[in-house]
Specification:
single chain, 154 residues, alpha/beta, Trna Endonuclease, Chain: A, domain 1, seven-stranded mixed β-sheet, 5 helices, 7 strands, 27% strand
């Protein structure tokens, strides 16, 4: 792991707000930071997961208890409502393809953002600010009924 990212993770461990630390990282580092948070919560993590025909990339896949969280990381300053809906639709399509092509039985699309967005869900897909990712992961399994899950068709 590169020194800038190690410093960022160390600073978070020392109590520096994760949003402040995240601002100093580029988008690749932001994806690694999201992966680190998942690992800390005992998720198995796969970064930059590629699907083919058509080619699609999923930024971060976190798997725990046979449920896959497919995360699209957005290291942007602000996301308009229209763009957020487009981002969610694309992520849902990637998740459908992932479930179709893998052994995953249940998958959940998630968008992780650098900044707090006014909207916390779009079409039942959670929009999670990096500042709330850890608590979201603590509560996700108890709240699956309120979120969009995609299951393998049998």
């Amino acid at each position: 792991m590169q020194s800038k990212l190690l410093t960022a993770i160390s600073n978070i461990g020392k109590g520096e707000p994760i949003e402040d630390v995240s601002k100093s990282l580029d988008w690749r580092d932001f994806e690694i930071l999201v992966s680190h948070v998942l690992s800390e919560k005992n998720f198995s993590v796969n970064k930059n997961f590629i699907l083919t025909k058509p080619r699609m990339e999923i930024d971060v896949v976190g798997i725990k208890l046979d449920i896959s969280l497919l995360i699209d990381c957005k290291h942007w300053k602000k996301i308009s409502g229209y763009n957020l809906r487009k981002i969610v639709c694309k992520q849902v399509e990637r998740v459908k393809k992932y479930v179709e092509k893998t052994e995953s039985s249940i998958a959940l699309p998630v968008i992780v953002t650098l900044h707090d967005e006014r909207v916390s869900f779009v079409n039942k897909v959670p929009i999670v600010p990096i500042t709330q990712l850890s608590s979201f992961l603590d509560d996700v399994f108890g709240n699956l009924d309120y979120m969009r899950t995609i299951e393998k068709q049998t």
